[in-house]
Design goal:
Blueprint (H helix, E strand, L loop, with lengths): L16 H20 L1 H22 L3 H16 L3 H32 L7 H10 L4 H10 L1 E7 L8 H17 L6 H19 L11 H35 L10 E5 L13 H29 L7 H13 L3 H4 L6 H8 L53 H11 L1 H4 L2 E2 L2 E2 L17 H25 L11 H24 L15 H17 L3 H18 L5 E7 H14 L10 H13 L13 H16 L4 E7 L4 H22 L9 E6 L2 H16 L1 H10 L3 E7 L1 H7 L1 H21 L3 E7 L11 H6 L9 E7 L1 H7 L2 H20 L8 H22 L5 H8 L28 H10 L10 H23 L1 H16 L2 H11 L3 H25 L9 H28 L6 H18 L4
Parallel strand pairs: 1-2, 1-10, 2-5, 5-6, 6-7, 7-8, 8-9, 9-10
Antiparallel strand pairs: 3-4
């Protein structure tokens, strides 16, 4: 399976890695001595030693003795009490997590120390120039690059956010420990801090007790931005700019960003009834709220920094105009919480509440904090950032941090009534909150009285701290402008809070920021002024970083994609056509559908009558399009159609979108905000992938559609290809080849119609779902498929692994940039001869037949799958908001790809990633094509990467462990024989993969990864054996909740050891 070390495993040396592991292991042992006692710690060490000895013997080829030790270990585990089993699972799971932290930290440290980093911008830019690319072509390609990383809520992140946060804390402490200037006292205090974190981890419940909601998942994504990407993006862009300037003489333009971010969290409704139109609207607004909140913090910091008076005439006029607008000291100190009072003056007698009854859910908490988890470790609530800024004197601030701190403390009592999403009375008496959006007159009076008293106190306090305008000896123009920016940002944030609460919002358009350009304008004005006044060194600091953040994250941090299954749109059109007495849409043939859709798309009238009565499911689809019309392309990204198979699937969405925009526009009396959403067909099954090129050709042959693409989307077509379902449908090898050919067909179709294309890759974290090292994946795409543009999903645990820490995030962003650049300017080679394609077809055919004959045609396989894996028990994990199946069926077909891969990963058999591959390679080799396959491996990047990924998976598979699951859990003799046959198939696959690659042993070309895997086995193998024992007990006592908890903890531990889930 994909490992977080795979991208840069060659950069790891093990000189210091073992030291980090030893340190963390010893500290965990110290904690366990106190928590569970010396006797049990000795028992844990005995189990670890038995596992270590067995691993060493297997590596030495002494299989019989190793098997005896493993049986002894399994016997000792089977004699454990439930409490002992639970403690062993927890201890070894936590150690594997700590080892993962050590791996990540050590990799970051080594990359920081390397003078020349592989795959870096500096290296790749130089490589391209040496290879004949001109400096102008290089510069132009980087500036025009459009890569979007889309974070999804796929349920593969096993760790609670509370534990993720603690793991990040430990990583920061290890980073601090590397400082050379620490005294002995500093190091002792650091060890104490590590002990506290590890103790806190041990005493925290590892398990989620409730399923996350889609809003919880969205907050998790926003947390990644706040925790890491917010810091990483400016660093990454500086690195790109520095390398560009070194090699081309020109830096990266300030507002140019090669990478942006999108999200499916709160927008992916495919098979998830919990994602509603209202959830999508709230998540989009919450994302805007978080963006504005982060910008307010940055504006505050900039105001402290830019204290100088010298500026350009243009900035001076802007500052003067701002001061002119502020006619009184009270106006100057006005904050967002005074605006409602002004609105009430304008609208006499209008009953408008001063403050909402609730803020966005947990908006006042650190996004890593989880509420409502039984036994979970809680973190203190974080007050919303101060609702007024403290105007500064024109003199230099002697101690800005202390001033800010003292002001926040003094205003704490004014702010603390806005906590936990509700308003409390000033005298601290508790009262039950009113229903959302409803107020009594007494509540309104009480809130207005509280607000008035608060305003008087703040205004008086601020007058004491700052002289009035005429007494000022001088004015810092940058602070005036940035203060105005902050004021406007705070009003923007307040407006979003009112919208989230469905409360009246009377802001004028000039009172708040709506677009990225509006926010960039004053920031660029300050930047140009500093540059013109000889203060470029200041301009290129914090201010440039903020401008780059605004250019990257915009007003929404991550634009939200919507995704829905194509059948749901057909159901909606069925309801509409039946209501209009036009027949049943879904029963029409494709040509009739296209004729109807095209005719209605050309019409200027709405299709859906406002009086239509529909089922709740259809209403939800129509409501989603209405929300999309209200939010527009400024907040939303693409509308993705899963299970797309025909041109009518795309036009159906275009029609529903057009109809909703007409309705909303009519109600608003003005055009809808932003433009129409890009409509993106997602081809997932092998059958649909084979027809993808024809579908795109058909679409582009329709006059209305081609004109629409040119007019509204700049002649740009986006197409998504799915790796998960195609792999489950036909096996990994066939899926890889069909995806390759589908991309070729789509690119050719768009090229023939003079339309640009962006391919959107729906890649999972594991190899079985299309995962793998980013660089390798991009470099092995078909020539012409990566022409400076790329979209790709990052799912579940890989989001935290790749972007959870700023240093690793910077590295990943750089890898994306350089890989896309190379694939654009120096695309990979095509198959050297047609014979290679024919051989791939033959391997794919045999592989697919072998895979499907086992998974879909063997009557014993489904029962074997349920017995030999913990698939049925995975649902208790509460790691995602969506159901594990699209439909209520027990078959493999309707099982989602994640639990399918997840279950096999737990048993270390990782069957979805290799089944069928051995049969395909063996069949072609036995026909005399072994040398051809070796040549293909050496010369064809796509074939090489496919074989390398399968080899990587085989390196993580463990036949003895998989055999142990069968021996203990599989009851039927014929099913045990099926398991034995599959293990033989695994060994066959290993044999022929090594023949093709020319390697003597698995992972020979990635020794660092092999070494890391081997280091985990003494902890991973006992957890697998313990899982088998717990499954055996649980299946005869399925109501035992303690047994269930123990099983879930073993699932966590194995996921930590394998470094991924599904």
């Amino acid at each position: 399976m994909t490992d977080t070390t795979d991208d840069i495993a060659e950069e790891i040396s093990f000189q210091g890695f073992d030291d980090y592991c030893k340190l963390l292991k010893n500290l965990l042992n110290d904690v366990l001595q106190r928590e569970v006692g010396t006797d049990f710690v000795e028992k844990l060490e005995r189990n670890r030693t038995l596992a270590q000895s067995a691993c060493n013997l297997r590596l030495a080829g002494i299989e019989d003795t190793a098997e005896l030790l493993e049986k002894q270990l399994a016997s000792e585990i089977s004699k454990m009490t439930l409490e002992e089993a639970l403690t062993l699972a927890r201890a070894f799971s936590h150690y594997l997590n700590l080892m993962g932290i050590a791996e990540t930290h050590h990799r970051v440290r080594k990359t920081r120390d390397l003078a020349h980093l592989s795959k870096s911008c500096d290296e790749v830019f130089n490589q391209l120039l040496q290879g004949g690319t001109s400096a102008d072509e290089l510069y132009d390609s980087v500036c025009k690059q459009e890569v979007e990383i889309v974070l999804t809520a796929h349920p593969t992140q096993i760790n609670r956010r509370t534990l993720q946060y603690k793991h990040v804390r430990i990583a920061h402490l290890l980073d601090y420990n590397d400082r050379p200037d620490l005294t002995q006292e500093d190091r002792e205090m650091l060890i104490e801090d590590l002990v506290r974190e590890i103790t806190s981890i041990w005493q925290t419940d590892e398990l989620r007790r409730h399923k996350p909601t889609p809003a919880d998942e969205a907050r998790s994504g926003l947390h990644i931005v706040e925790q890491s990407l917010w810091k990483a993006v400016p660093h990454y862009l500086r690195r790109v700019s520095t390398a560009l300037k070194k090699h081309t003489g020109k830096p990266l333009p300030l507002t140019c960003t090669p990478i942006k971010f999108g999200s499916w969290m709160g927008g992916d409704r495919d098979g998830n009834p919990n994602v509603t139109a209202k959830v999508t609207r709230d998540v989009s607004l919450l994302s805007r709220w978080m963006a504005i909140d982060l910008y307010i913090r940055e504006a505050d910091s900039l105001r402290f920094e830019l204290s100088m008076s010298r500026c350009s005439d243009k900035l001076s006029r802007e500052a003067h105009d701002i001061l002119e607008q502020e006619t009184s000291p009270e106006d100057r100190h006005e904050g967002w919480n005074q605006l409602m009072s002004r609105n009430q003056t304008k609208h006499h007698g209008q009953q408008t509440p001063s403050l909402p009854t609730q803020l966005p859910a947990t908006a006042d908490l650190p996004s890593c904090t989880e509420c409502g988890n039984n036994g979970g470790s809680q973190y203190p609530k974080l007050q919303l950032p101060g609702t007024d800024y403290l105007p500064l004197n024109c003199q230099d601030v002697q101690d800005s941090s202390n001033s800010e701190s003292s002001f926040q403390d003094s205003s704490h009592d004014c702010c603390k009534s806005i906590t936990n999403g509700s308003i409390a009375n000033s005298d601290s008496h508790q009262s039950a909150p009113s229903p959302r959006g409803s107020f009594t007159s007494s509540q309104l009076l009480a809130q207005r009285k509280l607000l008035a008293e608060s305003k008087i106190v703040r205004s008086s306090f601020q007058k004491l701290l700052e002289p009035s305008l005429p007494q000022r000896p001088g004015i810092a123009p940058y602070r005036i402008v940035l203060g105005h920016v902050k004021d406007k940002l705070m009003k923007t944030r307040r407006r979003l809070e009112l919208l989230l609460e469905d409360l009246p919002c009377e802001y004028e358009p000039w009172d708040y920021y709506e677009t990225t350009d509006q926010l960039l304008e004053p920031l660029l004005l300050c930047y140009e002024s500093l540059q013109s006044c000889g203060a470029g060194v200041l301009a290129d600091g914090r201010l440039a970083d903020l401008i780059r953040r605004v250019a990257t994250f915009g007003m929404v941090l991550m634009k939200l994609d919507l995704r829905q299954e194509s059948g749901r749109h057909s159901e909606a059109l069925d309801a509409i056509t039946k209501y209009l007495d036009m027949g049943t849409y879904s029963e029409w043939d494709e040509e009739k559908k296209l004729e109807f859709l095209t005719r209605e798309l050309k019409s200027k009238r709405p299709l859906v009558p406002s009086t239509i009565q529909v089922t709740p499911d259809v209403k939800e689809v129509l409501d989603t399009f209405r929300v999309a019309a209200e939010l527009g392309s400024d907040s939303l990204g693409a509308y993705v159609i899963s299970m797309a198979s025909n041109a009518s699937d795309v036009l159906a969405v275009e029609l529903l979108q057009k109809d909703a925009r007409l309705a909303v526009s009519g109600e608003l009396g003005k055009p809808c905000p932003g433009g129409t959403l890009r409509v993106v067909p997602l081809f997932e099954t092998v059958k649909d992938l084979r027809g993808a090129g024809l579908v795109i050709r058909k679409l582009l042959s329709i006059d209305w559609y081609s004109e629409h693409i040119i007019k509204n989307h700049s002649g740009h077509q986006e197409v998504m290809v799915g790796y998960s379902d195609s792999g489950k449908d036909a096996g990994r090898f066939t899926a890889a080849w069909e995806l390759y050919k589908a991309q070729e067909d789509v690119v050719a179709a768009c090229k023939d119609n003079k339309i640009k294309v962006t391919l959107f890759h729906g890649r999972g974290g594991s190899i079985g779902r299309g995962g793998g090292p980013t660089y390798l994946a991009i470099q092995s795409q078909p020539p012409g498929s990566v022409m400076g543009t790329l979209r790709s999903t990052e799912q579940g645990e890989m989001v935290q692994a790749k972007f959870g820490l700023p240093h690793t995030a910077v590295r990943q962003l750089e890898i994306y940039t350089t890989a896309v650049l190379l694939a654009t300017l120096k695309p990979p080679e095509r198959p050297r001869e047609e014979k290679w394609r024919n051989l791939m077809d033959e391997i794919s055919k045999i592989s697919c037949q072998s895979y499907r004959s086992t998974v879909y045609e063997n009557p014993e396989f489904l029962a074997y799958f349920h017995e030999a894996t913990p698939q049925a028990e995975l649902g208790f994990l509460n790691i995602g908001s969506r159901p594990t199946r699209r439909k209520s069926s027990t078959g493999i077909g309707h099982l989602r790809a994640i639990p399918w891969v997840f279950a096999w990963t737990q048993t270390r058999f990782v069957l979805p990633a290799w089944l069928g591959v051995g049969a395909g390679l063996k069949g072609v080799c036995e026909e005399g094509h072994t040398q051809d396959l070796k040549a293909m491996y050496k010369e064809w990047p796509f074939f090489q990467s496919t074989i390398d990924l399968i080899e990587m998976v085989l390196g993580k598979a463990d036949v003895p462990i998989a055999k142990h699951y069968d021996e203990v859990l599989v009851s039927n003799k014929s099913r045990r024989e099926l398991g034995a046959a599959l293990r033989r198939e695994l060994l066959t696959t290993e044999k022929f993969v090594l023949v093709v690659s020319g390697h003597e042993r698995l992972s020979e070309n990635n020794r660092s990864l092999r070494r890391l895997i081997e280091s985990r086995l003494p902890y991973l193998n006992p957890i697998n054996m313990l899982q088998v024992e717990i499954l055996k007990r649980l299946r005869s006592d399925d109501d035992n909740h303690k047994l269930r908890d123990a099983l879930l903890i073993t699932i966590n531990g194995i996921a930590a050891g394998m470094r991924n889930t599904g």
